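Aspartate ammonia-lyase
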Amino acid sequence: MALDAMTRTRTETDSLGSLEIPEDAYWGIHTARALENFPIAKRPISVYPDLVVALAMVKQASARANAEIGDLDAEKADLIDRAAQLVIDGQYHEQFVVGVIQGGAGTSTNMNANEVITNIALELAGREKGDYAFLSPIDHTNRSQSTNDVYPTAIKIGLALTLQSLLDELSLLRQAFLAKAVEFHDVLKVGRTQLQDAVPMTLGQEFHGFATTLGEDHNRLKENAYLLYEINMGATAIGTGITAHSGYSSAVLHQLRRITELDLETAVDLVESTSDTGAFMSFSASLKRNAVKLSKICNDLRLLSSGPQAGLGEINLPARQAGSSIMPGKVNPVIPEVVNQVAFAVVGADMTVTMAVEGGQLQLNAFEPVIAHSIFQSITWMRQAMWTLRVNCVEGITANRERLGAMVGSSVGVVTALTPFIGYAASAALAKTALLTNRNVADLVVEAGLMSREEVQKQLSPARLSGLETITAAIPIVQAAEDLVVAEKD
């Protein structure tokens, strides 16, 4: 019985001929041909649920708009509307089976949506799947539409929906870095430029910088998201609106705004909008920016935790797994490493988007499927990378306070804070002595008679060294400083 049920089929026909479709499938012949033609990525469009939801929103809005302008029977429009809502609510997503990479400028995806929503609607009407004489995927569900306006509009809406989850995770990651900035606010360390010792700062300032750069990316992503709000519904094939009612474009925009709660606008020039995919390139570039900056932060985390004995060893990352099959006790920075790799993939995906945008010809860009896949994958991977970085790394970072304190004490960089008081030349001489003897800079200053112990301690306090407390007035450079320089020359 089970075997019979699995092998039962229905016959569907298109302009190329007939095919047997599994009886329980909600997709139809156009989807079946796509499954035969594009066994490329082995990943169905359902891996991007927000894209599926967006397709259903477009079909729902179109049904409502066509009913409003009198271009579709109210009963049929209601059936399509209700079927689309079920998909929006998360049902039937497994029926969206065409591959994410496909030829045809997205026609297979549009037809997959048309067929699934139509067959759901047929069941709601108490009819059999495939009863297209009553309700047709093309004549009714696709009324007033073309793949060339449905597909890019659905991509834009889907990206806007899925972006919010990325922004939410980005905000949480930023907050995690801010929490560490507070925790490490009084931990002095040596800052570095060009991988060489520079001047002191606090570990809190370093982590606050990470949080700030992520906050800037949050703003840039939101700004670029508005590029996605210009749609071309009503353009149909090439932007001329052929086969669409004159009132359809404004009606469908109104319905889409209500359904999506996005500030969508219809493009002024539908011919241009149908052929132009520049918005995707700009949006992808903002994702690349975020990925590259996040990767830089992970580079810093790996450097700061390097060692732990023979490296910088300033911070400790949470131990997540054994780091070697041959070296006992080795623990690697696997979480920052995986985020780095995600960033590399996002950079590559952005190049794919760029080339696909450039590859458009005349009135249409045929390469929107790879554009959609590249950007959706980037957002998905970035969101998950941010989650694992926050939960499995940042929240558990600790500071090696004693090591940091010792490094600051012996660092010649602290002498920079004393130059307003003893002069650059004397400071340089002291730095040289400290490097040669590995002695504490403060001790050398006091021994040279350049400043009192109390004054040195005041100027080398964490607040002064990190710039949190500014120097209000410099004391006159003492004569002993000149004597020190002369002694160094001798």
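thats it. The chain has 20 helices and eight strands. The radius of gyration is 32 Å. bye
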